Amino acid sequence: MKPILKYLKLWYVFLICMLLSVSFAAGYIYITTPYYFVSTTLMLQDDKKGDGVLKESAFSDLNMFHTTKTIDNEIQVLRSANIMKKVLEKLGITTRIFLDKGIVKKEVYGSSSPLKITVFNIAQQAYKKLLKIAIINGEEFELGIEGGKSVKRYHFGERILGPGFVISIDKTLLKEASQEPIEVSFINTSELAKSYHNVRLDISPVVKDANVLQISLQDNIPERGMAILNQLIKEYNLQDITQKNQMALATINFIDTRLSYLTADLGSVELNVQKYKQQNRVTNIQTDAQSNLQRSEAYKQDLEEVKVQLSILNTISGSMRSVGSFLPIVPGTGGLQDGTLLALIEKYNTALESHQQILLGNLPSNPLVIQSKDKLVVMRNNILNNILSIRTNLNIRKRSLSSNYSEFDARIKATPALETGLQQRDREQAVKANLVQYLMQKREETALALSSNVADAKVIDPAGSDSIASKPKKQFIYLCAFFMGLIVPVSLISAKDYLNNRIYTIEEVKENGNLKILGELCHAQGDGILAETHKTRNDISELFRYLRSNLTLDEGGLRRQVLMVTSSIQGEGKTFTSINLAASLSEIKKRVVLLEFDLRKPDLLRKLGLSERIGISDYIHNRNLELADIIQPSGLSENLSVIGCGTILLKNGNELQNPRIAELFELLRAEFDYVVLDTSPVALVADAFNLTTYIDTTIYVIRYNYTNRSYLNVLADIDNNNKLKDLMIILNDGKANNIEEYGYGSRCYS
After folding, report:
1. Interior/surface letters 592-630, b for 16+ CB within 10 angstroms, e for the rest
2. Whole-angstrom Cα distance, residue 399 to residue 295?
3. DSSP state of 610
4. Separation between Cα atoms, residue 317 and residue 75, nearest integer Å
5. Rounded CA gap, 165 and 135, in Å?
6. CB 440 within 8 A of CB 259
């Protein structure tokens, strides 16, 4: 609760910081150019199989021309700097036009711009130029260059030649001509395109693994942002169609080139087939082979028949020439085809039978027998001559048949080789012919595709913008300003507490040892006497009365008569506390004496308004002086007396060990109820430690926001080693609004 109260006390700081942060946020929003979210939705074909731009083209059935076309690749194409540069140049976004409205400059474009600027040529140096234009009337304007001395007048539409640029400026259809000064700067389209590629253009799938993309950007002019996105899609589709057309034209050129080669090759192959058939006397392999086989079989059959005839003739001829049978009977003539020979043989056999009948009844010498025999001899000779003639003819025919049979048999045996050779030539001819036919068909398909190419991208939602600016985000900025209004003061206060090594709270004192706290004093205006008499009643006087009550409590019979008030350093309120504590004790009808024992830098008499006179130092050095000689009334109360430090300057603290000091305290104890000592700070000199023998209680003053925390270690050492008797702490200069923590009801506690 206390840390919260610490911040609540400084509510005005929070209020000031809150007002400043909100004001700063409002100013920031006012001077910051608003940016609007502009987006469009595009659906692309995702071709993971690699059909690419040839999916519907001539060679879609081949893999040789396939290119992979995926969503990720197309996103990179869409955001490429090259295509974005074309977009900017097509839209004429080569300049930025600003209307000077005083505190802020408003950029205009398109329908909101009073001017249209055409850039014909521009050099690198022109990008740093700022043109200032003032419209004079509907026909003329003045043009100046920032940093330049001259301002020239031009007509609208006139070509302007400047340092590093050639432009023309025309009026737009905007009815209200701008009266504000107009500023124009040139845009480096290459650098702007790179910025869109790197940062400004965002392209992402609407959902994961989808073919639908959202293309978005932020622009301070929604009209320009929408124009950029629409033109971007047009350029992408145009590039896609151009690529398809280029591929189709390249395909047609490729087909035409191949057709010219293949047509020549096909003619050569066809001529080769023709020559092969002519050389081998082939028309149709299968038909010719069948014909050759039939004719070969016919010749073979005829040859066999001739051989049979020759065999029969040889048999007959041999039989008729047999020695043992002068007139033999001609054997069977079955199979003979010669009719003459058959007739002769038949007559011979008949005559032979007649001859044998004649021999049965006649002697060999019978003229009938001889005549019959001569007739048979003639007939036999005729048969033999006829056989000889027939055999000659048959041998001739045999040779002819054998030759023909061998020829056709050779043709039959050569058929497989001829067939193989012709098949090779026919195959080559068929391949060439099929290729020519295939390429001619594909050429027609490609020509048809060339005339009907369309882009793969389809716009689902045209470019549009939000009506509320996406940047700066007003609600977020005001929320941040609100939190900054809280965080900054909290941070400053906390940093101050952390970096400041002074004592701020009573807890810091309590944590540094088992120290007794006599009480706390609130902040008092001025450094005079506030608790003067019983007639005085204010917060500080009441606090001293409570300190007096805590001091005079009976704690085990301890009598606190001699009270020494000290501190760590000067300025902690030691003298102020001594005076007011002594005055408060005098109010209860007690005789009190206040001693100015800060012999190094005395200030007590000055604060009481008393003049310097003989005092403690004089009493130490002059044994003739009595106690009554150095005591003087305080002027505050008749019960309160004062003894000053004296007129003699003490050389060092050792003089406080003088026996006269002991005598002085014996006399004071005997004559007064309370003796209050205002001594030197213990962190600077050791005078207070020299007096510890004569005192009963030590009151140590610590001042809030003044005493260094390091002195708490000194205080803890004093308490732990009992260097000062009955050490009690008074915390001085507390905040008045925390008065309930300080005096009322406080008592001596540890």
Report:
1. bbbbbbbbbebbbbebbebeeebbbbbbbeeeebebeeb
2. 16
3. P
4. 109
5. 21
6. yes
Task: Give CA torsion, residues 50, 53, 55, 57, to 10 deg.
Answer: -140
Task: Enumerate residues 6+ apart whose C-beta is below 8 A from 615.
Answer: 596, 630, 643, 644, 645, 646, 647
- Measured distance CA(424)–CA(430) in Å, rounded: 10
Percent of the chain with pLDDT strictly greater than 90:
10
Residues 88/180, Cβ–Cβ less than 8 Å: no
Tell me the mean pLDDT in the region 703-729. Answer: 86
Residue type, 319: S
- Which range, 281-290, 300-309, 589-598, is most confident? 589-598
Specify the pairing of strand 697-703 against strand 562-567. parallel
The pLDDT tens digits for 703-713 are 988 888 888 88
| H or E element in which residue 133 lies | strand 130-135
Sign (positive/negative) of CA torsion 188, 194, 199, 201? positive
- Chain centroid offset of residue 85 CA: 22
Q: Packing angle between helix 539-551 and helix 574-586, nearest 10 degrees?
A: 80
Give CA–CA dist 668/563, Å, rounded.
12
* CB contact set of 175 (below 8 Å; sequence gap of 6+): none
**415-431: pLDDT as tens digits:** 666 666 666 666 667 77
**What confidence tier does 741 reach under pLDDT thresholds 50, 70, 90?**
very low
Residues 6+ apart with CB under 8 A from 339: none
pLDDT digits (tens, 9 = 90+) for 477-509: 889 988 888 888 888 878 877 777 888 778 888
Q: Detail the DSSP E strand segments found in 182-313.
A: 182-186, 202-205, 212-219
CA distances (Å), 698 to each of 574, 605, 676, in order? 12, 21, 10
Cβ proximity of 698 and 564 under 8 Å: yes
Q: Is the pLDDT of residue 161 over 80?
A: yes
Q: Give the ranges where 463-562 is alpha helix by DSSP (H).
A: 474-499, 506-510, 539-551
The single-letter DSSP state of residue 701 is E
Which residue is associated with the tokens 């001077």?
31
Q: Which pairing describes strands 182-186 and 130-135: parallel, antiparallel, or unpaired?
A: antiparallel
The confidence score (pLDDT) of residue 651 equals 65
The stretch 137-166 carries a mean pLDDT of 87
**CA nearest to 29, candidates 466, 467, 476:** 476
Q: Are 190 and 80 in contact (CB under 8 A)?
A: no
User: Are 23 and 482 in contact, with CB atoms under 8 Å apart?
Assistant: no
Are the C-beta atoms of residues 643 and 596 closer than 8 Å to each other? Answer: yes
CB-neighbour burial class of residue 671 (10 A; exposed 0-12, middle 13-18, buried 19+): middle
Beta carbons of 240 and 457 less than 8 angstroms apart: yes
700 DSSP assignment: E
Give the contacts of 43 (CB within 8 A, at least 6 positions apart).
211, 212, 213, 457, 458, 459, 460
How confident is the model over 92-109, as a mean pLDDT?
A: 84
Q: How far apart are the first and last CA of the chain?
A: 22
Phi, psi dihedral angles at 124 (to 5 degrees)? -60, -35
Would you state the pLDDT for residue 323? 46
Q: DSSP readout, 172-201?
A: -S-SS---S-EEEEE--HHHHHHHIIIII-
| pLDDT tens digits, 345-396 | 778 778 877 877 887 777 777 888 788 878 878 888 888 888 888 888 878 8
Q: Has residue 552 got a pLDDT over 60?
A: yes
The values of phi and psi at residue 153, to 5°, are -105, 135
For residue range 626-667, what is the model confidence (pLDDT) as tens digits? 999 999 998 888 899 999 988 887 766 677 788 888 999 999
- The beta strand positions in 227-314, using DSSP E, are none
Count other Cβ atoms within 10 Å, centred on residue 316.
23
